[in-house]
Amino acid sequence: MKLIFNEILYLYQQLKFHNYLYHTLDAPIISDLKYDELYKKTIELERRHGNDETKNLLKTVLNRIGGDNLNFFSKCQHHISMLSLNSTDKIEELEHFDIKVKKLLNIKKDIFYCCDLKFDGLALNLLYREGILISAATRGDGIIGENVTNNVLMISSIPKKLVGDNIPKIIEIRGEVFMKKSDFLLLNQRNFFNHKKLFSNPRNAAAGSLRQLNPQITQKRNLMFFSYGYGFCSDNFQNYNSHYKRLIQIRNWGVPVYHKVVLYSSIKKIISFYQKIYQNRHNLDFDIDGIVVKVNNILYQSQLGFLEKSPRWAIAIKFYSIDVETQVLNVTFHIGRSGIITPVAHFFPIVISGVTISKATLYNMNNIYKMNLKLGDYVTVYRAGDVIPKIRKVLLSKRKFQKTKNIIFPVKCMSCKTDLVQNSYLGSLFCPSGLICTAQNLKRLIHFTSKRALNIDGLGKKIIEKLMNLRLIKTPLDFFFLDLQCLCKVSGIGIVLAKKIILNIKKSKKITLEKFIYSLGILYVGLSISRRIANHFFLLDNFLSANYESLFKIPGIGKNIAYSINLFLNTMENKNILMKMKEIMNITSPVFVSNKINTSLSWIQKKIFVFSGQFIFIKRHDLQLLIEKFEGIIQSHITKNIDFLVIGKNPGKKLEFSKKFKITILKEKEILKLLNLKK
Predict the structure, then answer these.
(1) pTM of model > 0.70
(2) Using CA atoms, how far apart are residues 373 and 634, in angstroms rounded to an integer?
(3) Cα 670 vs. chain centroid, distance in angstroms?
């Protein structure tokens, strides 16, 4: 039962995380279909196995309509809540929806449904008083949104004053703000040539444009708006007993409503409408991800009512992902910034939803083994979220008719030719020779000079890139041999900045052993592990001569961390660089501070803690220092030896791993209470 409870907690955290990415940051990392699957799985699991505790816990996220607001904008409360829609990607569920609606209404005759496109944009609530646009707000959490009135005033397609007759004293008109595909391409082209951020899709671009602090930027982005209905209405509008007629009236007031809104009483005709839109959606100059079907009769809508999150009288039918068959021709391997090797499958080019695709990432070795993929295999490929190419499955039934070969994994790094290491923890291969591997080097050099490492002010990412391109630096050791003449060769560096950098490099030579170890960027070794190692070995020489056994004995260091450090120290090129750095730098031993343990906090002693997520009430670093003060052990990664996982907002995969080992999970408020920091 505890495992099921942990599973519900995990799903709950995942929903919160993806809600935050989608609604608050406008930066989703999974498709809507994947989110819907996660949502349905959570509801079903809680229904079958939940208790009062899980019910109350899940209620906070399952009944949440949108996301948290950012702090840039004032808050704006909607007169009537902005609900979301029940959705599915299975067209057959439309028939079930029709049956359920008729059953709830206790009628057998056909009823009319108003069908509209499901625009892939940002929901917006426009408040008009006496026909004048008073305010505009995003959906937010469904009750309170962000006041984006100043930016909305810059959108030409949104009328500042309604025109015509029968205008209500107060009305909330609702719709979607979006960016046309053509405008999106032009925006990214301009940003590319101006070395600015590129947006991943039109929805993110629209959301980012609407949330600009400078309304003039919003004006330049050429955003569009289509209304799909209304919220609160004081009078007049109530005379229309048809959702379709209300949309027509909204259009007559000068608000844009897409012209392909239709009325059907036949489910077959709605399905035909869906399929026609699906096949022709790429001809549109804006993104849609399905259709919305609403009971047209307003009296019927009132009878059907609402669930806590959505109306019973509407459903969104999202576009399904097409699986296309192709044959895998090759698998190549690419090295990332941390040394992790990522396999990529290349196959005969195929066209999915109007886009030509010829490759897809395979993520890691374990995934290849799990799929049982071989070169020459036939596979089905789809576009997750209508964007990211992924292999769905291997068609094993076709293998007997084809000549297939096992995928040969590389044994040496493609960049530096160092022997690769298989990492069971990540299910990947990785290159251990970080200091000399060109493919990894830029990120490691940036890390070496960062604030928490050597803190060489003036050496930012762009300057380090230029120094590498001019072949002035290759390893961290090279920073200490830079002079004014070298630096002045770099575009953008004048004599004043060059002198500042040289002075800061000189200052950085004196550093604690803890920060020195951290600056090396060894896989798995963060600040807490660096501090643990420094306190254990005390002297640099002791650390440099450490082996796997001596590292594994340190509390809080498991097999993977010990193995990673041992590999790094025993790579000959790394050894040579470290010995030269030892001669140049003044690396000081740690200073021990004796702390009298508070008896109420003795439970922390010798316990191993891992942290994940964003902490609101206290900085994560400060909380970790407090744990260490009372002789707790901080570790970066989940292993079976961990005692506590401390989670803040939006915890990552560590939460998933922790349930495998039945690790105790503490929320931020819970640990602050245990530390007597919060009542």
Answers:
(1) no
(2) 39
(3) 26
Looking at the fold, whether 138 and 270 belong to one and the same domain comes out as yes
Reported as a single tens digit per residue, the pLDDT across 566-575 is 988 988 888 8
Strands 664-667 and 644-647: parallel
285: phi then psi, degrees, rounded to nearest 5: -95, 20
Instruction: Tell me, yes or no, whether 516 and 638 share the same domain.
Output: no
- pLDDT tens, 547-588? 999 998 887 787 878 888 998 898 888 889 999 999 999 998
pLDDT of residue 124: 94
- pLDDT at position 36 over 90: no
The answer, yes or no, to whether residue 308 has pLDDT greater than 70, is no
The answer to whether 85 touches 311, Cβ cutoff 8 Å, is yes
Tell me how far apart the alpha carbons of residues 588 and 163 are, in angstroms, rounded to a whole number: 75
Counts for the chain of helices (H) and strands (E), in that order:
25, 24
Domain span including residue 279: 83-318
Q: Which of 92-106, 324-338, 371-385 has the highest mean pLDDT?
A: 92-106
Give the active site residues: 118
Percent of the chain as helix, strand, coil, to the nearest 5: 40, 20, 40
Distance between CA atoms of 542 and 536, rounded to whole angstroms? Answer: 9
Residue type, 141: D
Q: Is there a single domain that holds both residue 115 and residue 240?
A: yes
Could you tell me if residue 67 is inside a domain?
no
- pLDDT band at residue 632 under the 50/70/90 scheme: confident
Domain match, 520 and 434 both: yes
In a domain, 366, yes or no: yes
Question: How many domains, in total, are found in the chain?
Answer: 5
Among candidates 230, 200, 231, 353, which has minimal Cα distance to 289?
A: 353
Grouping H, G, I as helix, E, B as strand and the rest as coil, residue 646 is strand
Alpha-carbon distance 436 to 453, whole Å?
19
User: What integer pLDDT is reported at residue 591 of this predicted model?
Assistant: 59
pLDDT exceeding 90 applies to what percent of the chain?
29
Other Cβ atoms closer than 10 A to 95: 13
First to last CA, the chain: 31
Can you give the CATH number for the domain in which 56 is found? 1.10.287.610
**C-beta separation of 406 from 369 below 8 A:** no
| DSSP structure string for 6-23 | HHHHHHHHHHHHHHIIII
Token pair 């395979």 is at which residue?
Answer: 362
Interval 395-429: pLDDT, tens: 888 887 778 899 999 999 988 888 888 866 556 78
- Burial code (b: 16+ CB inside 10 Å, e: under 16) for 260-281 equals ebeebeebeebbebbeebbeeb
Does residue 583 sit in the same domain as residue 641? no
Cα angle value 229/232/234 (rounded, 5°): 120
Shared-domain flag, residues 115 and 130: yes
Give the Cα separation of 391 and 406 in Å (integer): 17
Does 562 map to a domain? Answer: yes
CA–CA distance, 267 with 299 (Å, rounded to integer): 21
**Residue 593 lies inside a defined structural domain of this protein:** no
Quick one: 189 and 304 in the same domain?
Answer: yes
**What dihedral angle (degrees, nearest 10) is formed by the CA atoms of 211, 215, 216, 218?**
40
So what's the pLDDT on residue 68?
Answer: 45
Q: Are residues 484 and 441 in the same domain?
A: yes
Residue showing tokens 């703000």: 177
> Residue 339 corresponds to which tokens in the numbers above?
């040394």
Distances 649 to 30, 145, 349, 669, 676 between C-alpha atoms, Å: 18, 20, 41, 11, 21
**Which of 286, 318, 350 is the endpoint of a domain?**
318
The set of residues, in sequence order, having a beta carbon less than 8 Å from that of 425 and lying 6+ positions away, is 560, 637
Question: Which residue shows structure tokens 């391109």?
Answer: 469
Pick from 318, 337, 353: which residue ends a domain? 318
